[in-house]
Amino acid sequence: MNRFVVAETAVIDAPLGRVWDVISRTDRYAEWVAGAIEVTDHHGVATVGKTYSERNRTLGPLKTDSVWTVKEIEPFKRRVDTGTGFAPLQDVTNIFEFRPVQSADGREATEMLYQVEYTIGLGPLGLLLDSIQQPAMRAGMRTSMANLSTLLRSEASRTAL
Amino acid sequence: MSSTQNTDTDVAAARHAHRADVVVIGAGLAGLTAARELVAAGKSVAVLEARDRVGGRLLNHDLGDGQVTEIGGQFVGPTQAHILALAKEVGVATYQAAVPGETVYVNDGKAKRFTGHTPPDLFALPDMGIALARIGQAAAKVDPAAPWKASNARELDGMTYETWLRKAEITGDAVDMINLFLNSAYGGEARDASALFSLWYVSTFGNETHPGTMERGTGTTGGAQDSRFVGGSQLVAQRLAEELDGRVHLSAPVRRVSQDSTGVTVVSDAGDWRADRVIVAVPPLVASRIVWDPLLPAQQDQLFQRLPFGTLMKCVAVYDKPFWREDGLSGMGLLRGGSPIREMFDNTPPDGGPGVLMGFLGGKEWRKWAHRPAAERRGAVLRCFAQAVGDRAFDTADYVEQDWTAEQWTQGGPTSVAAPGVLTDFGPWMGRPHGRVHWAGAEFSPYWNGYMDGAVRSGRHTATELLHQN
């Protein structure tokens, strides 16, 4: 079995508390996670041991149904979920980590680590498969964090209710 | 039972403080137009309006400095001669709604700019061409005045519009494009309406000499979204009310209508009226909730209950100026792929001033977003706007939502949508007078049904009908 770790980081232009609030909402992933078309089942604010389900885009027009289980929550720091439904990727683990930083103009911002770990069987073919899918996965992770930044900006506009 | 009714009538009679030849219930365009016609014919008229304002689904939002934008109905266009002539008579001018610049087509998050009427989507366009041709052919066979008489009316009314489209080998892309229009036109989708209703709806996009077409209904310049009113569409209703000179009574919701051989008693929160005849010019579903004595014919009551309005919210973002125009954009956008806002327009007042973007949150998207926290919904709307005009869309000076489902006296928007079975089983009861009670409203018009022009047509038609009765 080949075990892969794919990680991307980005600075989210919003205070840690607001970032944490949004990423904790299992009903909101389709609003910012690039591959999530729809959240089909959720339990609101993430709770360890509970699950949520998504319809996800995979390659091209292909779609899959995934189920995620919340495994670990360290408030405002770390969140770990495991997912099924991404064959041939197996033992998929999604990790978010956060730390507060300051933006160039002195505003509160948040550094986010987005990491996905998984295995692919199939020996050398698995390595080939990963070389095809990993760039798209990385791009999706970067897009997701950019989307998260945009979402937080949109909800913090001057006329915020 | 009858003795109770008699007692109620007696009590109401004892309370009579007002008298008019005709009481009009509802001060939207239809009711006000009917009242104007009746007054011109020498009738004494009282208009009872539940709200503290006139205009019904026409509603201006004050932007300050004498500027307004509309958060209700706003567009008019060719073949809508009734509303255009009426507006002219009351001194409300029109202006071209389209703003020079490119439109933005967003599909799956990818934005493309284009000019003209054809979105740059090679996959959807062939299907859309087929869809428009088939809709046009089928709609041409439906009589706008009596859709239930179409030769295949039962078959068409036995399926949803979406089923009919798919049976006509129109695929997902074109169905989604049609839903993009229905999102604001119905506050719903093709799956919400019967095929007969939808083809009839298209057949109403015209007049006695110009058969209805989908292109006219969906079009901007030269179509139903061609023009707007200087001062906002509600100004037409306000001017009509001014002309009626004290005959319009606000905050007067009507609770009960009782009729007997000598007249009609209308019980409202602002007092009771006794009249020879009554015109009811409120949405059909709202009309069905008035207490009727005697009861409405069961078929008519069933019809009104089955003509609910769609689910629609207008979302308006106000900016210091219409910044998108500097980038060569018209502010118009068509958004697909699960976007909360499907259609957006530049709603900036005609003489400049603050920039205004308006988007429709309707149908399935309304159902998804209406119950969400306001800040989250506003964020989703602004992200849609930003996809079309850039991130400056987040820098709002003001943000306003008008959820028409939250209006007690409208209960949805923009118009009635009939599910399968309604038109063929109950349609002939549409405008049939109930004794001394007559019906008016945009939903009772054979042309531009659900539109301002339909409302004015209907108001005139019903006033004429009533005068002939007398």
Automatic annotation (TrEMBL), chain A:
CDD domains: SRPBCC. Pfam families: Polyketide_cyc2 (PF10604). This is SRPBCC family protein. It comes from Streptomyces muensis.
UniProtKB/TrEMBL annotation, chain B:
FAD binds at E49, A50, V254, E443. Keywords: Oxidoreductase. Substrate binds at F360. One of its GO terms (molecular function) is oxidoreductase activity. Its cofactor is FAD. The keyword Iron does not apply. Residues 29-467 form the Amine oxidase domain. Belongs to the flavin monoamine oxidase family. This is FAD-dependent oxidoreductase. It comes from Streptomyces muensis.
